[in-house]
Amino acid sequence: PRRILDLGSGDGLDIVLRENLGTFASYVCLSHSWGGQQPLKTTMRSLRDFQNKITWSSLPRLFQDAVTCTRKIGFRYLWIDSLCIIQDDPTDWMEQSACMVDIYRNGALTLAAACSTGAHDSLFRRLSRKHQLRQLDSGGYPLVRAWVLQERLLSARVLYFGDQELFWGCTECTDCECRGITNRRSPTQHLQIKAKFHPSTLHMLGATGIAEIWRTSIMPTYSQMKLTVETDFLPALSGIAKAIAHALRKKKLTAGYIAGMWECWFIEDCLWYVDNPGLAQRPHTWRAPSFSWGSIK
């Protein structure tokens, strides 16, 4: 990423926003729900101040917990979208959102705030001492936020902080503290799709196999997810599309892509339909051309 949070190597609480670090360093990403207005974000006005220091007291609870967790597991650098992308600079926002596939894939680990509805929530939960059946509320808002899908599919490793326990998934397997899930019995669609979306899996498939993953896994899941800003529909999918395009080019197939539709199977993509026509509606703000499945919500 162009910018990264430097948590320091000592015991100091304050952190610094670094730009163009210039050296390879392992880093952790945070995947979270903004929960409305973000209380702390980098703007053109605050950029220079943040490059000097971001005080611990100014960080919302979720960010403090993410910093603490990152330090505890031995990493110095942390990427948080609202702090590492200049939020009121459209050029920077477009450039960095286009790099999401690389930011999440190259990160050592993604911390997923699966039960936190905003930056003021804690990443951690107080656990009950009573033995109980564990589950993750996959319908909760943090897990149905549209940006979450690419954040968690593209990451090499994801650690979910659930309401009752920790879940984790990587390119090889999924598991949890109670050992009650497996690759076939995953608590979230994200982990189920992740196994199919592994680069080595995509590269072994032909156009038909890749198309099946796109139509039967990506499109149905993403179309049910929620956006705070309607115009983010295509940008929030761009990282996944970039990964698919890379797999197609590896197969020497046409990788043209526009508005959620692929050139190499464009006719078939135009055969999309709505399961419940009575519930379908056009978004108030334009987000995709009418021939695209993205034009309906």
TrEMBL record:
<dbReference type="InterPro" id="IPR010730">
    <property type="entry name" value="HET"/>
</dbReference>
<dbReference type="Pfam" id="PF06985">
    <property type="entry name" value="HET"/>
</dbReference>
<protein>
    <submittedName>
        <fullName>HET-domain-containing protein</fullName>
    </submittedName>
</protein>
<feature type="domain" description="Heterokaryon incompatibility">
    <location>
        <begin position="27"/>
        <end position="132"/>
    </location>
</feature>
